TrEMBL record:
Pfam families, per the entry: DUF3800
Species: Meiothermus hypogaeus
InterPro entries assigned: DUF3800
Protein name, entry field: DUF3800 domain-containing protein
């Protein structure tokens, strides 16, 4: 089974923010343990006695908010980059998926609906390509607990039964799961992926996104893992 860990970045209701992002990465079920252990090593830099108490979270790490305030900016930013490199250097089957939506470009549609439809369908198509290569796998999307949970759950159910714009989702084992990010290093990495993607398209800052862009799902030279609505 492949698990797609995903999170959002950008606030729907903030007029000062132009983009909304849903992004994350898929990993084969046995890859999760290795990724989590590498992220634990990064967290231990900030609390060696209790690395589990450290949540790797893009926005506060970047800005130095809350418990991150006591750490030097360069040290915090290096930790973000190193965490993203864990994904960048992981098994080739681990793929990046991102939906980047300029809110004004999809109005009056809900940006969450547009972004999730693209994220889910592109992950499903990745699983279809694996099946066509004689590697049949099921998929599951795992989100951070979010204010958009009810919207996403409803959409996911509809995609599996009534269909979406391009067909019916056929390869998901279940509707998305929602976890507390404090309990999952993989959800924390999805947060960093979403934040890096958001900064690239909202702020024009490719510092972090450039470390993972090469892991966008692609086949035959065609990039499938990025949806960009500007």
């Amino acid at each position: 089974m492949y698990l797609l860990y995903a999170d959002e970045s950008g606030a729907i209701g903030d007029p000062a923010q132009q983009h909304f992002v849903l992004a994350g990465f898929c990993a084969f079920e046995r890859q999760g343990w290795w990724i989590s252990k590498e992220l634990d090593k990064i967290a231990s830099r900030f609390n060696p006695a209790d690395p589990g108490s450290v949540e790797l979270h893009g926005s506060p790490m970047f800005a130095g908010r809350g418990s991150w305030r006591k750490f030097d900016k360069a040290y915090r930013h290096k930790a973000i980059a190193d965490a993203l490199r864990v994904l960048g250097n992981s098994h080739v089957s681990n793929r990046l998926f991102a939906s980047v939506v300029r809110k004004s470009a999809v109005s009056p549609r809900d940006p969450v609906e547009v972004a999730f439809e693209q994220l889910a369908s592109r992950f499903d198509k990745y699983l279809i390509r694996l099946h066509n290569k004689k590697d049949t796998q099921r998929g599951l999307i795992v989100f951070d607990k979010t204010t958009y949970e009810s919207t996403i759950q409803t959409l996911a159910t509809d995609f599996r039964t009534k269909g979406y714009t391009w067909g019916i989702i056929r390869n998901f084992a279940e509707v998305p799961l929602f976890l507390d990010s404090k309990a999952s290093r993989l959800i924390q990495l999805a947060d960093l992926v979403a934040y890096a993607t958001y900064r690239n398209f909202e702020k024009g800052d490719s510092t972090f996104y450039s470390l993972i862009e090469h892991r966008l799902d692609a086949d035959g030279g065609v990039v499938h893992g990025l949806y960009l609505k500007q």
